[in-house]
Amino acid sequence: MTDAPDAPTGGAGAPARGMSRRALLGLGTGLTAGIAAGAAAGFGVGRGTAPTPAATSAIGASTYPFTGPHQAGIVTPAQDRLYLAAFDLTTDSREELVDLLRRWTTMAARLTQGLSAGPFGPASGPYDAPPDDTGEAADLPPAGLTITFGFGRSLFVGTPSPDGTPGTDRFGLADRLPGGLVELPHFPQDALDPARSDGDLVVQACADDPQVAVHAVRNLSRAAFGTATIRWTQLGYGRTSSTSTAQKTPRNLFGFKDGTANVKAEESAALDEHIWVPASDAAADTTDSAWLTGGSYLVARRIRMTIETWDRTSLREQEAVVGRTKGEGAPLSGGTEHTEPDLTATGGDGAPLVAVDSHVRLAHPTTNDGVRMLRRGYNFTDGNDSLGRLDAGLFFLAFVRDPRTHYVPMQTTLSRDDALMEYLQHTGSGLFAVPAGVPDGSLVLGDDGTPTTSDDSPFVGQALFA
Ligand SMILES: C=CC1=C(C)c2cc3[nH]c(cc4nc(cc5[nH]c(cc1n2)c(C)c5CCC(=O)O)C(CCC(=O)O)=C4C)c(C)c3C=C
Ligand SMILES: [Fe+2]
């Protein structure tokens, strides 16, 4: 198993470039050798052909492999844009759920390699039927698109009613509920909107072009017609984390560098300890959750930031609240951006240089039993309220091995004691189990080298249904 960051075939961190998917499709179904090589790099080819991860495709498009031990979109260098959609199933049929996951897998494998959603594309196929791709990404390169799927608690045990009546096990999955897929507690100061929370399924689409990410979710949603509907979505821009040491630390809407102390893709031991679910975690569960081995959990929190109040706050106060300098992002205990904060250092007045209620102190591993998380959040701006205040903030996304140890305790501390909370309001929430990746070489490819869907096609999360 390699824990190196997913490398795009166009070069890590490189802007999307090269041939658009329309040009790619224009080459017809008889793919050229170069494109077949690109597809092989991405899908992992069935029929015994060895996958060639991270090969540069002849078309020069930036793509990340869809298959692999873990799903793409976790340690993949965080792209610039996000479109995340949570879905609710409208069927009680396990077969229809499995069929949806098969079709989503095939479509995601195509889309992430810069192909159209279906084999015909937006402008061909039967003239009297809707095209099998909506078309708005036809002239755009793949833009490093990754698509990551997850399962919400309600998929396993339904949704309890407000009077406490337990939910329904619609798909015969209750005995597969992984222990970490808990109902998150109400944290102090939570102001969650149910219409922006939870969901049976989640799709995280990340790309360096928002239209490519939106196109992916739109086509997946279209494929779900009659089986699942969108419950809520979130658009994000300006990643608020680095997930690879090759990436420059970006800034959040408070103007601070965000993602400095993140777990990075190159830290394979930390990924195994804090991000990927090990087989031993399933063994400790009362349910049969071995299917999640090699996967992770995704925590999503829509956090509104009171920008206007923050912008009237002194630089001294802003830095004290965060615990780092605004310019360099260095800890207030001294050094440069990547210097480890010294939480014991005190100033001339004897007070800690990194304040006791500062965000960095309270989120630091030493304050949290050594736990770390892989943050992968985005800024959002969703218009304004009736007082003219921006509805803007940070869409916090983090991948963790177990939310019970790696998220709930830290969020409890932050919600109660973090000075930053004066400027924050959590307005949406979701927790999802993210299965391991579709194995390299397992997707069945059609004659044109693209994945096909049949009754025995492999699909994301397949082990859950075994
Ligand atoms: C429960 C986990 C976290 C939430 C929620 C959260 C929200 C949040 N954070 C910032 C800004 C910054 N966070 C920084 C560091 C940091 N934050 C968390 C966790 C949560 N943040 C962790 C684990 C860490 C790393 C701590 C460490 O190891 O030192 C920083 C500093 C730069 C960095 O290391 O990334 C900033 C700035 C905002 C604005 C926010 C909610 C809107
Ligand atoms: Fe933070």
Automatic annotation (TrEMBL):
Dyp-type peroxidase N-terminal domain location: 71-237
Domain called Dyp-type peroxidase C-terminal: residue spans: 249-438
Coarse class of the protein's main subcellular location: other
Region (Disordered): 115-141, 318-342
Annotated protein name in UniProt: Deferrochelatase
Assigned EC number: 1.11.1.-
Enzyme class: oxidoreductase
InterPro entries: Dimeric_a/b-barrel, Dyp_perox_C, Dyp_perox_N, Dyp_peroxidase, EfeB/EfeN, TAT_signal
Cofactor details (free text): Binds 1 heme b (iron(II)-protoporphyrin IX) group non-covalently per subunit.
UniProt family annotation: Belongs to the DyP-type peroxidase family.
Highest taxon listed in the record's lineage: Bacteria
